[in-house]
């Protein structure tokens, strides 16, 4: 499966990194100024290759380690293989590695597996499953990884029109370290949203957003909701999205009533301040 509009910048914010394996280093024995030997370099590891961005090599090394180890080492190799497959855009392969790790007793493993499975669900538009997985991952992980999971859970809840849940997770996403300033800034922007609107669509192409807005214009104005508007949003990955918003409502109940009257696939969403 090809990777869906996720730039390298997104991976920097979203990817759930694995810990490197400890380096095996032989000490240099010094006696009367003589060095016995040079240090023995550590063997290459899938985790190390993953952290350096060499995902194809990370996958190869991790799959090999999985086949010849057992226990926690085997599970960590499976995690790295799954993360690497996802980074290469091979979502089905990633899921085959990560699904068995969802309920692993080590939260560092199960949390990263659930978070990446949540991103895969989000990429294919299954925000219900994405929100559940990412929300669970945010509780299993800590620090910056938890903040990233909370942010992406909030994005999926927002896409579902579940504004209160989205705002809760945006608030939780602000708890990362200064290294996660981008997540914190975006979360604060989302929390500055005021009231409710109907979101009729979200597009990477502005022309597609304009086409939908024009198509809905007559009906939206006839219902008293005004002209559909296009709101530009820049998520954590840096890619630009164009959202088609209709109307402005002070309560979620009013927005839900308007959604039923409008019909179609619109969802209730927070209304961006203009």
Total strands: the figure is: 6
If you consult CATH, what is the topology of the largest domain? Serine Threonine Protein Phosphatase 5, Tetratricopeptide repeat
Which CATH class of the largest domain applies here?
Answer: Mainly Alpha
* DSSP helix fraction: 40-55%
The secondary structure category is: alpha+beta
Following the backbone from N to C, one meets helices and strands in this order, namely HEEHHHHHHHHHEHEEHE
Total domain count: 2
- The radius of gyration computed from the alpha-carbon positions, rounded to a whole number of angstroms, is 23 Å
* Number of helices, where a helix is a run of at least 4 consecutive DSSP H or I residues: 12
For the biggest sheet, the summary is: 4 strands, antiparallel
Spans where pLDDT lies below 50 across 5 or more residues: 1-13, 17-37
- The fraction of residues in strands falls at 5-15%
> How are strands sequenced across the largest beta sheet?
4-5-3-6
Mean pLDDT: 82
Distance between the termini: 37 Å
CATH architecture type of the largest domain: Alpha Horseshoe
């Amino acid at each position: 499966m090809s990777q869906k509009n996720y730039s390298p910048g997104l991976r920097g914010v979203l990817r759930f990194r694995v810990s490197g394996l400890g380096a095996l280093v032989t000490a240099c024995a010094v006696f009367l100024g003589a060095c016995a030997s040079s240090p023995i370099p550590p063997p290459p590891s899938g985790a190390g290759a993953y952290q350096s961005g060499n995902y194809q090599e990370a996958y190869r090394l991790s799959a090999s380690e999985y086949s010849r180890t057992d226990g926690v080492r085997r599970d960590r190799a499976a995690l790295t293989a799954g993360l690497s497959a996802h980074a290469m855009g091979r979502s089905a392969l990633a899921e085959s590695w990560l699904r068995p790790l969802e309920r692993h007793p080590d939260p560092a493993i199960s949390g990263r597996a659930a978070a990446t499975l949540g991103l895969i669900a989000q990429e294919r538009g299954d925000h219900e499953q994405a929100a559940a997985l990412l929300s669970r991952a945010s509780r299993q992980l800590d620090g910056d990884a938890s903040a990233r999971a909370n942010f992406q859970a909030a994005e999926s809840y927002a896409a579902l029109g579940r504004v209160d849940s989205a705002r809760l997770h945006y608030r939780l996403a602000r708890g990362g370290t200064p290294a996660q300033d981008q997540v914190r800034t975006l979360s604060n922007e989302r929390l500055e949203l005021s009231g409710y609107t109907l979101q009729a669509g979200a597009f990477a192409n502005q022309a597609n957003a304009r086409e939908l807005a024009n198509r809905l214009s007559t009906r939206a104005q006839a219902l008293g909701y005004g002209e559909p508007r296009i709101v530009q949003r820049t998520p954590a990955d840096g890619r630009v999205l164009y959202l088609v918003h209709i109307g402005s409502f002070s309560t979620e109940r009013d927005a839900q009533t308007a959604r039923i009257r409008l019909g179609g696939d619109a969802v209730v969403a927070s209304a961006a301040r203009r």
